[in-house]
Specification:
6 helices
Length: about 140
């Protein structure tokens, strides 16, 4: 290659490197605010599958319903819990699958489609998803 070609390639590489490390307007780099707000917003509809999981672990599993008990009055059985269980488990599966799809789209696929974004920042903020549910649970217990 000739000298001007080498200089053009070097200039192009330098421009690309500067573009990758370029700061946002106002001198700020991309922070954690957008991922945090997005995952908190996902946490609002996630209250439904989280509550259904909470119900499954606290009401359904401890229910001591022995279908072959000699005296059902002596067993610690809640028949309403048993009657509601199939519907609530179905809703948990559907809403959990929808939540998982939204999580993958927002926290993995969307950051990968942007050249200057990193999915690790977004995945780190997924820990904020249960925050709205936990706040409501604490308020309900108080």
């Amino acid at each position: 290659m000739t000298e001007p070609d080498v200089e053009a390639v070097d200039a192009k590489k330098e421009d690309e490197r500067a573009r990758r490390t370029e700061h946002r307007p106002g001198g700020r780099r991309r922070g954690l605010l957008a991922p945090a707000l997005a995952n908190l917003a996902i946490g609002l509809p996630a209250i439904i599958p989280l509550y259904l999981t909470y119900w499954l672990l606290t009401d359904y599993l401890p229910s001591n319903c022995d279908a072959f008990a000699a005296d059902p009055a002596l067993s610690n059985c809640d028949y309403h819990t048993l009657e509601d269980a199939p519907l609530l488990m179905f809703l948990l599966a559907v809403t959990g699958a929808l939540l998982l799809m939204v999580l993958v789209m927002v926290n993995v696929l969307a950051p990968r489609s942007r050249e200057d974004d990193n999915p690790r920042r977004w995945l780190a903020m997924t820990t904020l998803i249960p925050v709205p549910f936990l706040v409501l649970l604490c308020l309900a217990k108080a």
